[in-house]
Specification:
Layout: E1 21-26, H1 30-41, E2 46-52, H2 55-65, E3 69-73, H3 81-91, E4 96-101, H4 106-115, E5 119-122, H5 127-138, H6 146-159, H7 164-168, H8 172-182, H9 187-194, H10 198-212, H11 217-230
Parallel strand pairs: 1-2, 1-3, 3-4, 4-5
């Protein structure tokens, strides 16, 4: 049974007329899909472009819609949400995802992070928290709970990968950026902390991904955490 979002309150979300965050929803439960679309669409600073009941429909339409953030249910009929994220990431690398789930399904959430999702939400999340999470993802944030971070670290430890050599290849600035990302900072927060531009942060992140042989923030943070745990 799907959880019901709590009633909308003041979200405390920054909003300007010309900078609305464009959101798409992939959720098979009709009531929840409609409720999410309504709550997002009626909040200043957000636009709900469309919603879809299946991964297959989302794959067909979302690349042309070009949303900023996609709310993705994990358990969908047919293709699941994790595989949908993986395929959409190939088509739209800049697209950001927040996973939706009824329960804290560790393995599925973990796999979604490896597929390219930024984070996850429980369906009982209140609307203000949902809107804050969408904005945070849009700004480059991706907080990982201790539980999920441990799962990611265990994954790399079980694979027996060597972290020291690749971590040593990072420049001091890249290490600063990675440390901030591991603490849950958004790209904007990192830029402010280091007194650099957002483009500089993005360039450093690209270099970090290349040097660590990873494709997502979750993987990069995992290597960082595992390196410090074992070092």
């Amino acid at each position: 049974m799907h959880e019901i979002l709590e009633p909308r309150q003041s979200a405390g979300v920054k909003a300007t007329a010309g900078s609305s965050i464009r959101v798409a929803i992939v959720e098979d439960n009709h009531w929840l899909r409609a409720n999410l679309a309504r709550e997002i669409g009626q909040t200043p600073g957000f636009v709900c472009l469309d919603s879809f009941r299946s991964a297959e429909a989302a794959l067909e339409a979302i690349p042309a819609l070009r949303p900023d953030v996609v709310l993705m249910d994990i358990n969908l009929p047919g293709m699941d949400g994790v595989e949908c994220v993986r395929q959409l990431k190939k088509l739209c690398p800049a697209l950001q995802f927040l996973m939706l789930t009824v329960y804290e399904e560790s393995d599925k959430i973990f796999n979604s992070l490896l597929a390219g999702a930024r984070g996850y939400l429980l369906k009982r999340t209140s609307t203000p928290e949902l809107l804050e999470a969408i904005q945070q993802v849009h700004e480059g944030g991706a907080p990982l709970t201790d539980h999920i971070a441990r799962k990611v670290v265990q994954y790399f430890n079980q694979r027996g990968q060597e972290h020291s050599s690749t971590m040593a290849s990072l420049t001091p600035r890249e290490k600063q950026v990675l440390e901030s990302l591991a603490q849950g900072a958004s790209y904007k927060m990192v830029a402010d902390q280091l007194a650099v531009s957002m483009d500089t942060v993005r360039m450093n992140v690209r270099h970090i991904y290349h040097k660590l042989h990873v494709h997502s923030r979750g993987e990069a943070v995992a290597k960082y955490l595992s390196h410090h745990k074992n070092g």
